[in-house]
Design a protein that fits this description.
- 3 copies of one chain form a homotrimer.
- Chain A is α/β, with parallel strands linked by helices.
- The first copy, chain A, has a single domain (3-177), classed as 3-Layer(bba) Sandwich (Glucose Oxidase, domain 1).
- The first copy, chain A, has helices at 9-16, 20-29, 95-103, 118-124, 179-201, 206-213; strands spanning 40-41, 48-59, 79-91, 108-114, 128-130, 142-147, 151-153, 156-158, 163-167, 170-174.
- In chain A, the strands form 2 sheets. In chain A, strands 1, 2, 3, 4, 5, 6, 9 and 10 form an 8-stranded mixed beta sheet that branches. Chain A has a two-stranded antiparallel ribbon with strand order 7-8.
- In chain A, a hairpin with a 2-residue loop joins strand 9 (163-167) and strand 10 (170-174).
- Chain A is elongated and about 65 Å long.
- Chains in contact: A-B, A-C, B-C.
- Chain A binds chain B through residues 19-21, 23-25, 28, 35, 37, 40, 44-45, 167-170, 172, 193, 196-197, 200-201, 205-207, 210, 216, 222-225, and chain B through 66-69, 71-72, 89, 91-97, 99-100, 103, 116-119, 122, 133-140.
Chain lengths: 225, 225, 225
Amino acid sequence: MLPERTLRKEVIEEFKKLDVPSISDAMDKLKLSGALYHIKAVVPDTYVCGQAFTVHYIPNGTIKGTVGDFIDDILPGEVAVIDNNGRDDCTVWGDIMSIYASQHGIAGTVIDGVCRDINVIRQLKYPIFTKGTYMVTGKDRVTVDKVGGTVSIAGVQVNPGDLVCGDNTGVIVVPFEHAEEVLAVAKQIETVEQQILQKVRSGMKLKDARKQTGYHTLQTPDSEQ
Amino acid sequence: MLPERTLRKEVIEEFKKLDVPSISDAMDKLKLSGALYHIKAVVPDTYVCGQAFTVHYIPNGTIKGTVGDFIDDILPGEVAVIDNNGRDDCTVWGDIMSIYASQHGIAGTVIDGVCRDINVIRQLKYPIFTKGTYMVTGKDRVTVDKVGGTVSIAGVQVNPGDLVCGDNTGVIVVPFEHAEEVLAVAKQIETVEQQILQKVRSGMKLKDARKQTGYHTLQTPDSEQ
Amino acid sequence: MLPERTLRKEVIEEFKKLDVPSISDAMDKLKLSGALYHIKAVVPDTYVCGQAFTVHYIPNGTIKGTVGDFIDDILPGEVAVIDNNGRDDCTVWGDIMSIYASQHGIAGTVIDGVCRDINVIRQLKYPIFTKGTYMVTGKDRVTVDKVGGTVSIAGVQVNPGDLVCGDNTGVIVVPFEHAEEVLAVAKQIETVEQQILQKVRSGMKLKDARKQTGYHTLQTPDSEQ
């Protein structure tokens, strides 16, 4: 990752305390979109939060490159973000890569496509988010076209260094340029959410809890459900 | 719920002992249909059985209402049945509503659409059945149009007070008017099933067990597999 | 199963040690295809490996037969492979069949279609691989047309005695005629995979581990990811 696109460590640590819906609400409030449609956790209760290391695959043709060797260049804490054009008929991630990634502190993987070797992935509880699973290899079917460029994941533009956060609800991408701004708003949203929850837990009606915290009328952060 | 559409408590208690496939077979036998296509449990091994409290959402437009405040009006034991037109791009249920519902004895939620905050929902083991999960809020995208009216869930008409039963296999809706009739037939079906199972467990061939219980030839309840 | 299509017991035992992706890679290498698209384990961490016992269903019409009675004829260790034309609106497998199959040593079930009674299937941890789950019975909707013929499962031709292997990643069918050949290649592939893994675990870069084992350049088995 380019040094000028490195987020401050504290920013990432703060994001790790947020859940994906709160980040989504903050993005909404800032008129940003980054929700990855139909990308799901392969292993329940896994979690990812880190800056994107992007990879683009193309179908094999006159150009044939390699598959997977890029993994040596991913820094600890980064997330492998792989654009395989949404294909669910051949995989670009499997057991050796999962083992390697776990061992080297790679934060996780997000694929616009599918992965395999789910037995190993489940054992490792490796955080990987995809369109599903299949067993057919991408080798001799697709090839790495570019590493570190702009990619498309489920219709969202992702650039190296963008922040990628995923949990049981799904995955969202926060543009590098807006990360600190999104963080500030998301933290406000979680504060209001906690206030509503506290009132609700003490027996207040939801309608009243929302009214007291300005859910429907004020322009304060307000997208809890 | 209207008092005249309240099922006897014993009826609901009896339904709770049945699994969804047996109810489906009884509906079949009575030429009724209520199976919700592609609606699934968000958390494995959760279960719902209760009368419907219906809510209808529409996309935001010139009319903009609220989201979620209806929850205060759901009675303990009822099931929130939310028609969001099958949309899977914005949610109408999340963490605060799940916590509130658990706390107030709401039996569960069924959505023709999606929900979010799956971390919390999994921790609570809250019984919610949807078309999937996403993180983008419905707030400022959809609005409650009507509470307590007739709704469409996965192509099935649902009215307030209809009985909604869901388990690992899926969700089925029993019209209020037919609940007692469906119950009687479903209980007969389970009795025959248990007879077949007992014979099979004692070593009898399935073909013979079915013959002895009249599976293929008689008009008795017979849809076990 | 016809005696002339019975695999040697040792062959099946050896296949049981392989995971589905390795078998897929061996099939690839031999220009064979047998991956079942969109067929998934109903219960996580279940596994199937055995020869196919095939069943074909057709929609009810002027011909109406039975459902499920074929189960008495499946031999221990065989896999029920049921072609219901990919239908996900009615089921051809449920609780009694799962209990019967578990009791009689049937290895598992693969359906181009859906099953029901997931509560029981989960309790049994019965290995069943389908397009999903639903509660509506196939009884009076579909009927067994042929047992022991050639069937289509997710677009793949399956014949009685073909080897069917399924795990968390998915299901693959190895034609009876090629089973020993596929086994030999798959074992070679797993050997190379283990070599790469050992090097990676001892700290070698993936690129170098692949180079030393001939992953990109040689014609040796090479489809690990």
